[in-house]
Amino acid sequence: MDTARLEEQFEARIAADDRIEPRDFMPDAYRKTLIRQISQHAHSEIVGMLPEGNWITRAPSLRRKVALLAKVQDEAGHGLYLYSACETLGIDRSELLDQLHSGKAKYSSIFNYPTLTWADMGAVGWLVDGAAIMNQVPLCRCSYGPYARAMVRVCKEESFHQRQGFELLLTLSRGTEAQKAMAQDAINRWWWPALMMFGPTDENSPNTARSMRWKIKRFTNDELRQKMVDVCAEQVKALGMTLPDPDIKWNEERGHYDFGKINWDEFYNVIKGNGPCNKERLEARNKAHNEGAWVREAAAAYAAKQAAREAQSAEAA
Ligand SMILES: [Fe+2]
Ligand SMILES: [Fe+2]
User: Fold this and answer.
1) Would you say residue 7 has pLDDT above 80?
2) For ion ligand 2, residues whose CB falls within 5 Å
3) Of the bound ligands, which one is closest to the alpha carbon of residue 43?
4) CA-CA 20 to 30 A from 107: which of 23, 34, 85, 178?
5) In angstroms, what is the span from residue 242 Cα to ligand 2's centroid?
6) What is the pLDDT of residues 235-282, one digit of tens each?
7) Considering all CA atoms of the chain, what is the largest pairwise distance in Å, rounded to the nearest integer?
């Protein structure tokens, strides 16, 4: 069958809400878009372990330590599902990791900010995992089967992350004046970077229209950002805290909260590698990868031995 005919069939399947599976025909650009998006997502999960891993040894109680440990382990699991989903598109995991370690690949800019106090564990869970859920729930309906299925499980775990973060902040908000101030300070620092997680404005996001047409994305960046503002503007009231934006105001006509201007210079600067922790994060990833080399070598040697043994017994049979 010629390519034009195959592409026509592909478009028809997308229009019919069919799932595209690894062995199915897909246009090159669709494959490339997915490899980029899924690998960036996988890298974000893995790099995302670092800011919170920073606090595991300093959690204030056993209960908090267990919850944080479980959360950080979940993120490792998310990374693994996503690298696997990405490999179904015909790229090798080692190549993806090389792209991350060399600084060629991108990951979510939010993880280039430091976690300065214990309250940051609450703000990250509430806002960063909250933004991740907003982004990822629609991805459960993504047209590419392996990505959509991975997202179903990931989203269940993300909602636990978001709730543990909110509950942590709620506890601090009912504590001493110093604890309240620490919680408010964490919210102040994480709010704007969390809104930037949805990516550039729609007018500066040239690939959005095509991703929407392919049903990879179901909502635009600005639509998702607005949902996030609407949800958080209400939830922050339950905390008895405020969002660091004097322009947040309910707009009856729009049926949404209005909000202030995002500092896009900061966003692009962090993306370019000049955020507070870009260098530190890449160094930590490279170090972990290099120190794990012997594990990968041992696993490969074991797999080769097993294969040889199986071949031998097949011969004998
Ligand atoms: Fe995650
Ligand atoms: Fe998470």
Assistant:
1) yes
2) 129, 158, 161
3) 1
4) 23
5) 23
6) 999 999 999 999 999 999 999 999 999 999 999 999 999 999 999 999
7) 79
